[in-house]
Amino acid sequence: MVKRLMLFCGLLFAVLTMQGCVMTSVPYQALQVQSDEAVVYLYRPESIISRGIHFSAVLNDKETIGPFINNSYIPIHAKPGVLKIVLQKNSFPKQTLDSTVYDNLESGKVYYLKAKPALFGLYKLVKMDPAVGKAEISSTSYYQPN
To answer: Considering the domain boundaries, does residue 19 fall inside one?
Structure first.
């Protein structure tokens, strides 16, 4: 009887713990860009490199967005002007992988930024041509924790 109770409690704990890890996904959909903002799509293509590692992005050393997982994208709504994006691994301590700066974001424009996998679990942020970025991002999904 005690073994069954312990097994039940263990299973209940596992289910409740995993419930917080569930995410919903939405296939890529282009956003309507407001006239007073720019949109930067940060995307991570399908890759076997660091597949299970979650990343986050830090915007202008203030706001952290994510999780950013394999084969996903995150839309970033930004004010015109300067935007600094730092890609970091969600581990302890946080590990910075790469960063980039947009010096002059323009209102109403869309930008594409690819997190390109490299050797040894590293990533490089690459500013993409809009046509190439739009084609590559179309196979990704937007993931949100429930």
So the answer is: no
Give a yes or no: residue 5 inside a domain. no
Q: Give the list of residues 6+ apart from residue 132 with CB closer than 8 angstroms, or none.
A: 112
Report pLDDT digits (tens) over 6-50: 665 555 555 444 444 556 778 888 889 999 999 999 999 998 887
Q: What is the pTM of this model?
A: 0.80
Among candidate residues 137, 117, 142, 145, the one with its CA nearest the CA of residue 50:
117
Answer yes or no: is 80 within a domain.
yes
Structural domain harbouring 66: 24-145
The radius of gyration of the chain from alpha carbons, rounded to an integer in Å, stands at: 18
Task: State how far the Cα of 70 lies from the Cα of 73, in Å rounded to an integer.
Answer: 9
